[in-house]
Each structure stands twice: as structure tokens, then as C-alpha cells.
Amino acid sequence: MKEAITLGVVCLARTTFDYAAAKELWDGIRSDLEAIENVRIVAPRALVFEVDEAKAAASQLARAQVDGLVIISGTFHLGHLALELVKTVHTPVLLWGLPELPYNGGKIRLNSVCGVNLNASNLYKSGVQNYHVTIGEHIDMNWVDAIRVLKVLSRSHIGILGYRAHGFFNLSVADLALYRQTGILIDHYELSEVWNFPASDEAVQARATQLRGIFDVSGITAEQLHKVAMLAVKLQGFLDKYALDALAIRCWPEFAAEYGISPCAAMSLLQSEHRILACEGDVEGGLSMLMHRAVGAETPFLFDFSQVDFEKDFALFWHCGVAPCNLWDGRCVRSLDTYFAGGKGVTADFVLKEGELSVLRLDSSEGKYRVFLQRARAIPMEKELKGTYLKAKFDVPVKQVLDKVIGKGVAHHASVVYGNYIEPFRIAAKIAGWEVIE
Prior knowledge:
Layout: E1 5-12, H1 19-33, E2 39-42, H2 51-63, E3 68-73, H3 80-88, E4 93-97, H4 112-125, E5 131-135, H5 141-155, E6 158-161, H6 175-182, E7 186-189, H7 191-195, H8 201-214, H9 222-241, E8 246-249, H10 254-259, H11 264-271, E9 277-278, H12 283-294, E10 301-309, E11 314-319, E12 335-337, E13 347-351, E14 355-365, E15 368-379, E16 388-394, H13 398-407, E17 413-418, H14 423-432, E18 435-437
């Protein structure tokens, strides 16, 4: 489900143009906007012609605490109007121009695009450059989804359990730089808080039964299965108690040594139920997954660029066994295994399904944020490895992708989802002032 947002919408006009036609168009547009999934519309029904009307509209939208401001040039209009709106409503802006209507008696009727040009120039020269422009009969849904991305970052509750994994310095975050960029404050919890979290026998037994129905568990002991089931119950309860939207977990080395198993299998199960869990204490990886989910992508997960084959032009997206178990290819045997951490690994093992992929990494370097974006396709492969993995072919040569990752020092985790989810993140990055790496 897409992130819920509130949009403020105002339609501007001038009496020297065909404002009656613009009002008819505005009524239809408003009806269309109110039908968009998880979008609440706040908008004056009348066209806005004068400065006082723009001020009143701005006050209405500010009181509603809108997440984005849509300024429609119903016709050409006074340059004051958009400036008055933006002066009061401090959100990203969509400047929307309407296609010109058939000429009537040799006179241009709307001159809407010129109104957009006027507003863009005024805003740009006044230092307000977080606007996006669209020309057409319908709102730019990629911009709407970009607002969802920024909203989910601003309101999410993020936790880190333990710390980042040992030696993974590149997954560290500067708390106040992250706050400055997104509004997020990270809450820290000790590993023992999950280990000691209560778990009823009944709930643990239900999880164990569920695991047996999903995985071949012949490769692990009854005690290990019990620990996976118990950890799934503990993590679920912990996430619910603290109302966490995402949790980054220091999954090694302490988990296997002190709890008795690694958390991979339990995380695979919970992620299939739409929980956002980032391995190895990767906070920005968790945020990348949340960003994917904000635009309606289902069950995002983190992967490593574990192998590249320049001759056959593919990459292996692999991780030790944490991908959501619902993304299984439907052919291989889904199993639980103990192939690492001295037999205490307890990971999920399966090949992921085929399909279109979108890759995203929100990443920071030297106090600045950037987003890494790529499109790829998961292609068939045999189950030849432990862990969870897929073979991916990018839209561009894999060497070109790897050169971007290495050359820009992008962290070794990225979020991947099935489907085409790229453009909203380009727009969100432009609004936020982040570099886009593609």
C-alpha cells in the first residue's frame, strides 16, 4: 500500500482569458485527484484570481499541513499568486500547465504554459528551486509518489539494534546529518532487549508450524527451529511495542555466539509479512527499503553485488539468507541451513523469482546524501549456492554499473524490488537536493 499523503491544490486564472473553460477543467481535475489512492486533497473550489484570494488559499493549506503544493495554471495569471502561496506553504511544489484549448475567434484561450513559465522563473530567481513541472491533462503521478517518499522519511520511526556489523564502517550514519536531510532521529536498542523480549509458547509453536510449512527444515535441529520461531515472535513483538517502521540489526557476530543462531531465517519470514528489517546494522539500507515501500513496491530486501560476469553480462545479487521467503522462484527447494557461523547460521536458502527489478540505495558520503538507481531483470538460474540470491541483467552493461558503484563509493548493500520504480526517486532527489547516481 502506498504512503498516505495530503496535497494542497490551487488553480490560478485571470479574467482576460477563458476562465469559464478553466473552471470547467478544474472541476474535472479535482474529481480525478480525489480518486487517487491514499491521497487527501485540500483545495479551494473557486479559481484564484487575486492576491487576497491567494493569501486565503495559502492559509487554508498551511492549516491543513499539506505534504505537497500543486499550483495549476488554469489560465495565465498574476505572478504574485504562486509567490504568495509558496511564502506560506513550505512544501515541494508541482507547477502544472494545461494543454491549450482549440482557438476561439483567433484568441488564445488559456495561455497556461506561459503561466507555468512565469511561476518557474519567479520561484527560481527567488531561490525556491524545489519545484517540478508537468504539462498535461493529468497530474504527474511520479511527482505524487516522490512526495510519498519524502513523507515516509520525515515521519518514520527508525531503530538500530546493537550497532553496525563489525568493520562495516561504510554503513555508519551521522545522526544529525540524517536528521537535517530527512527529519529522522534514530533510536538505539541493545541486542539483549530483543533476546530477552517475552514470547509465549503458543506463539512460538505457531511460528514453528509456519516455518515447517514454508521451508525444508531437515538441515537444522529441532532446537534451532525453535530458536528461529522464538526470535520471529520476539522481533514481531519488539517492533510492535516500539512502533518501529524499520529496524537495522547488528546480526553478527554476537547473535550466533550469544543467542545461539543468526537472525537471517527469522528476518526472511518477517520480511515476507511486510516488516522492514535491515541486516548488518544498515540504517540507510533500511531507509532505502522504506522508500521503495512508500511508492507501493512490495517486500523490498537488501542484497550484495557478490559476483559480476563481464563476458556473460550479469551480476549475482546475493546475501547470506535473509530475502523475504515469499519471493521464492517456486521451483527450487526452500530450505533452512546452518552453513556459516560455525553451524549457527540458520539462514534461508532459495533462488528468487524472475521479473523486472528496481534497485535503490539512499547513501551518504561526507555529510551529503545521494541515491543510486538502476533497472534490471532477474533471469532464471539453478540453486547452486547457500543463501538467497538471483541472477540479474541490467539495462546497461554490468561493468558500467559496477564502475558507478565503485567509482562513487556507494555502500555494498542496496534495496531491490520487483517492478518499475525509478522516476519517483529521481524527482524526490531533485527536491531534496541529493545527487542521483545512475
